[in-house]
Amino acid sequence: MAQLILAVNAGSSSLKCTLFQNNDSLDRIVSIEISGLNSSDPASVEIRKGSEKEEKEDKNIKNHDDAFRRVLQLLEKDESVPGIQHAEKIIAAHRIVHGGDFEHDVEINDETYHYLEKLEELAPLHNASALAIIQSCSRELPKAKNVACFDSVFHQTMPEAVKTYMIDPEHAKEKGLRKYGFHGISYKSILRSVSHHLQKPEEETSLIVLHLGSGASVCAIQNGKSIETSMGLTPLSGLPGSSRSGDVDPTLVFHFTSDAGQLSSKSTKELHITNAEEILNKKSGWAALTGTSDFSKIGVPSATGANRLAFDIFVDRIVGFIGNYYVKLSGKVDAIVFAGGIGERSAYLRQQVCQRCECLGLGALGNKENEKKMEGAVLDITEKETNKILVCHTDEEAEMARSCRENF
Ligand SMILES: Nc1ncnc2c1ncn2[C@@H]1O[C@H](COP(=O)(O)OP(=O)(O)O)[C@@H](O)[C@H]1O
Ligand SMILES: CC(=O)OP(=O)(O)O
Ligand SMILES: [Mg+2]
């Protein structure tokens, strides 16, 4: 059995890595988070070991692969960390956002790697970085077993009528054009923590979960299974993100630019991205409206001008999905759950969203509960006799490590 599990989570704006001891309690040895990737600001590096926390800026980290190499350097340098370069028995668990038709996590070999390469174009902000990291990992940790943990697997349970787009079915089948949905590792982690908090089995827990980070999505979970989510064929659809437009009229992009279908200058021999994808994935979202990808400047009561508009748009789209999913769940919702970097940290956003959902039995949150600091995985911010409102710290890395411990 592997002794160590290194969980590697390449998000659109961050790289979060945790080294676990592969034992029953999956003891956390060290966590390193590099955030602020894909932005004009220098990246920041945060190292957590037990109760110790160290934070610094690093101007030399430009992309996810740089970030991963820095993580390996830091682990190698740390004398209290078992020498992972020499460990015979280590599993590297990689978060892969788009897993196509995979119904479970898989070991990465030549065949699975090539399948994932073909999917790159469907998740251009994510899969390409994850594959670059897998390449580095195979080089730097040649003895490690590499496992792909997929964001899309959790949503395989969505009904046909939800997964299917109203387009030519033969063409859709041939090209794999359907709704996949993402952030599934996070939803699984949230379902686990929230059902434990509610003291209900997962199979009897129904939730509307808001994963709000640089990429944001919503999921309707009915009796422990995803029945609907806001992202689709790619992570572009649904809510806006820091650099993503979210839902727009699909023809908008042809009015935005006359060369939407041409390859963008960012394309490489291996990865083809059109100008349309570049614009909607990388040059939109609140960063395009406000000039900052940092939502802590936007999600505050004092926000004005473009920041205020970006905030109002985000709240508007979120409450639209809550209403939609409330109906899809026939009103049987155990809790509305806020998660992700923004969901966890912006009390003002939570307050505004809940206020707008008063007709669904939510309602304005005063400052007391909502402003509390999180301790543990779940914080109950329900104030009155309303539906339950929770904040949950998602732990994608622990979820990936759990999958490896159980299956590989
Ligand atoms: N105090 C805060 N208030 C609001 N948003 C915040 C705060 N701190 C961080 N954020 C936002 O959280 C997002 C990152 O969330 P996270 O879920 O970690 O990202 P990723 O999508 O890279 O996984 C960024 O958009 C960042 O601006
Ligand atoms: C799927 C997705 O958008 O992931 P992230 O929020 O980590 O960028
Ligand atoms: Mg993330």
Automatic annotation (TrEMBL):
Q: Which residues bind Mg(2+)?
A: 9, 396
| Residues with site note (Transition state stabilizer) | 183, 244
The entry's keywords: ATP-binding, Kinase, Magnesium, Metal-binding, Nucleotide-binding, Transferase
Q: Origin, by domain of life?
A: Eukaryota
Q: Which pathway, metabolic or otherwise, does it act in?
A: Metabolic intermediate biosynthesis; acetyl-CoA biosynthesis; acetyl-CoA from acetate: step 1/2
Stated name of the protein: Probable acetate kinase
**Top-rank EC class of the record's enzyme:** transferase
- Organism listed in the record: Microthyrium microscopicum
Question: Per the similarity annotation, which family is this?
Answer: Belongs to the acetokinase family.
Q: Where does substrate bind?
A: 95
Q: What is its EC number?
A: 2.7.2.1
Catalytic activity reported? acetate + ATP = acetyl phosphate + ADP
Q: Which residues bind ATP?
A: 16, 211-215
